[in-house]
Design goal:
Blueprint lengths: L2 H13 L1 E7 L5 E6 L2 H4 L2 H17 L6 E5 L4 H15 L17 E5 L12 E3 L6 E9 L3 H13 L2 E10 L5 H9 L4 E6 H14 L33
Parallel strand pairs: 3-4, 3-6, 6-7, 7-8
Antiparallel strand pairs: 1-2, 4-5
Helix pairs in contact: 1-3, 1-7, 3-4, 5-6
Length: 240
């Protein structure tokens, strides 16, 4: 894992991972939640997210004209990549691991959840050149619904979707297969799995001498997912 990837995983583990009882946008429930915007809108997290996505895009072999996705998860990611591409081309970043050979400006766009009912009445905002090659980006993939909507809206507008990247994949049973089916022939790539972030969070808590996290345990008092096992198995509501 590159230094940037390792550093970004650390930020995610510290800023974005939460244990408890949560309702997901997909309609399901979970004993953990990953609030990626606490990382992608964090100063250092935003810098690292842009760097990791930027590198992943070029390692794929594609040279997209723009990146974007469904608002609002994709918004800070697309903005960060666009800024980084401009800084790199203008020579402000001289890191030897980011050689700019063959690289170009990458613009950003946003896919609205619905078409505007006023003004320009657009669903795609920002970069709008039909026929352009684009990467779809998102922060979390659970059911894959937001990435799928962004892919379909982008193709309907006239973009050529050449890839899709998600920061964290929750590894739900139907999520990845559905995204891969819709994205085909474009590849679908994830930077981390939810398990990667969870394990890193556990490691960070252990280093800080916090109570051990109760992975897979339930609260002794109510049976809900436990967040600690020392001195007792307790959920977030009954944590001592």
């Amino acid at each position: 894992m590159s230094n940037a990837r390792e550093a970004l995983l650390q930020v995610l583990a510290e800023n974005s991972f939460r244990l408890g009882e949560f309702k997901l946008s997909s309609g399901g429930t979970s004993d953990y939640y990953i609030d990626c915007r606490a990382t992608t809108l964090n100063a250092e997290g935003a810098r690292l997210t842009a760097r990791v996505f930027y590198d992943e895009i070029y390692e794929s072999g594609f040279k997209p004209d723009a990146v974007g996705g469904m608002t609002m998860g994709a918004d800070p990611i697309a903005t960060g990549i666009a800024i980084l591409s401009a800084q790199r081309i203008q020579g402000r970043i001289t890191d030897s691991s980011m050689e700019s050979s063959g690289r170009k400006l990458i613009h950003g766009f946003v896919v609205r959840k619905d078409v505007k009912d006023h003004g320009t009445e657009q669903r795609i905002e920002g970069f709008r050149r039909k026929g352009a090659k684009v990467f779809i980006v998102d922060d979390v993939c659970t059911s894959g619904n937001s990435i799928i909507q962004a892919i379909e809206a982008s193709r309907q507008f006239g973009f050529e979707v050449v890839g899709a990247i998600c920061l964290v994949e929750r590894e739900e049973a139907r999520g990845r297969p559905l995204v891969e089916k819709v994205a085909h022939p474009a590849p679908f790539v994830t930077i981390y799995t939810a398990q990667d972030v969870r394990e890193k969070h556990l490691h960070v808590r252990q280093q800080e001498n916090d109570p051990l996290l109760a992975l897979g345990e339930v609260c002794d008092l109510c049976g809900r997912p436990a967040v600690t096992v020392i001195p007792h198995k307790r959920c977030a509501a009954h944590q001592e």
